Amino acid sequence: MNKTDLFQEHIKLGAKMVDFGGWNMPINYGSQINEHKNVRSNVGIFDVSHMSIFDLNGSEQVDFLRNLLPNDVAKISNPNRALYSPLLDELGGIMDDLIVYNLGSHYRIISNCATSSQNHNWFKKHSEDYDVEVTFRKDLSIIAIQGPNSLKILKKIGMENLDDLIDFDLKILNSIMVAKTGYTGEEGFEIVVKNSEVQSIWKKLIEAEASPIGLGARDTLRLEAGLNLYGTDMDTNNHPFESNLAWTIDLSDDQRNFIGKSSLVRINKETSRELVGIILKEKGILRSNQIINHEGGSGVVLSGTFSPSFGFSIAFARLDKGHNGKGKVEIRNKEFNVEIVSPPFIRKGKILI
Amino acid sequence: MSKIPGDLKFRPSHEWVRVEEDGSVTVGISDHAQDQLGDIVFVELPETGRQISAEDEIAIVESVKAASDVYSPISGEIIEINELLIDAPETVNESPYTDGWFLKIQPENIDELNDLLSPDEYGEMCEE
To answer: How many CA atoms lie within 13 A of A148 on its CB side?
Structure first.
């Protein structure tokens, strides 16, 4: 199994390690619920070095990316900006989701771990038509620092001058990429450092009293924040319009072609399903594959969990259109009433439901 | 992980059982089970008075991670449930062998417990 360069640090901190897409990763360091609450109220740090980093090189990076991604990197033509986009196949099915960064010197893509070789092959194949070289950066690690006190803790370890960064900005500090991005819905940063330097930065953050957070809490945090998980909430069988990602499909430049565009424009958005939020206030937990019924149709639960912030269960579901905000879910042969809402459930400490 | 009390017996599916002085048996889930489940957020307990057979599903534990069934180690009648778990399910994580017990059964035939695992046997099984 793959190990990140922080593996020994996780063991020292008492982490429970699990197999996560072929990587031996911390699921929690004791209590997932406490870790979740620490990120919402203070600050936590995550080892997310299992994610895949690809650096581009060459004179046609922009043309390559404008063809590769449905979101338009023209939006980040100024350096030090980042952009979220799904990655689509020719039929408009979602192959992955990713963030692309304009570092000034070149563009960088960070995508999920389970899809790393698929993406690497896909990027290589589609770069053949362009003056672009793709490098899989296994020599880099990623730490996420998330929570209302993330800026403070970075200052404590000497990472200054980050106050003026807005969401999806980035900055290069002593060859470390610091991006104001994350997967928790809180104020936070993700830093990309050399494998050889990651232990020392992690230890400094722990000494500065940041709590280590496992992938368990990462999952409940992102679900509350209304952020999809690739493989659970969407995959190649789904298009962006039924995955709450219509906003990532940029059709504003009608001269631009991108992979999947010809299929997407044929989709009837009126009749397609939608990805919604589900709330169950009674005692029971929403889980993947449970059936939801509502007055206009039905659908299935995607990610579902107990929400530590609310104290009841929340989920995503992909449903037929035409609900009136109310539905029913069947859990172990019992029917429960649920509310159907638009995600996110919570953002930057603010409750949105 | 806390030490397994010597007066318990275990099902391979991670339930523990203890014979009380009045002849009833108390049932819970093991420390290993709670550790594997992670934070427990909801426990569904049966009604008292229900007649059950050994290996019946008698409770459901929901953690943040997953739902799992709890099976009866013995046949008999449910005579008491641990009401504390309704509002404080995390008690199962904190003290699985004491305050985090699930329910008590008045057994029909105490000999049904003979096939269960001793603490040592159960401990070895979990290490495999």
So the answer is: 9
